[in-house]
Amino acid sequence: MKRELSVIIFAYFALVLSAQDVIKVNHEGKKPTISDFAWAYLSSYVYDGNDESSFNEEIQRFKQAWILHTQGTTQKKGEYLFIDSKHNHLCFSHDENHINTNVEMRFWNESDKKHKLLAISVSRFKIPQYTPEQSSDIRFYRYNNDTKEMTYCGNRPPGINEKFFKDGCHVTYTMSATGKYKGKDIVATFWEEDGDYRSFFFKWSGREFH
User: Fold this and answer.
1) Taking the CA of residue 111 as centre, how many other CA atoms within 13 Å lie in the half-sphere pointing to its CB?
2) Residue 186: alpha-carbon gap to chain centroid
3) How far is CA 86 from CA 33, 78, 83, 89, 175, in A?
4) pTM for the whole thing?
5) Residue 117: which of 209, 179, 35, 187 has the closest Cα?
6) How confident is the model over 13-26, as pLDDT tens digits?
């Protein structure tokens, strides 16, 4: 009986994991927009309140902001949602206790014209120096134009060697297509515990970053 119960529990979690890793993207136009990707991801996301990771907490907060946006309701005080459909980019941000938090989403068209790469990042940081409150996470999904599904493909920019990410170094990401980083693709800032930092520009090649 215990063995059968274990099999059932394992199967359940496998289904949950599968649902999170493969997400259907519904859209009305010929091509999905960044808003279509955002709602596909957020509508598939379920927050049970027990996961205290900053990524999941911020995605849940972003989801509530997105619902307000679709209802035409003003965002909560101190929260901002920017949608740049032209550059396939959006950002949800807020500030608390001098800590700035950004949730960004952006996608790139692949050179084969059959796929797109979507990135979702959460960064909490206090500039100009490193603080223990800082945290960051980025996740990538590959979208298939034919199946209209996006599949999880890792938490590192494709093409960037793992050795590039030095142990003990904290990374925050910026993906804005306008403003200071216009023309760049992903800006990765590596923070040392003593406050020193270095920024690198990861350039999209049509399939991976360089």
Assistant:
1) 6
2) 12
3) 9, 25, 9, 8, 14
4) 0.83
5) 209
6) 343 434 468 999 99
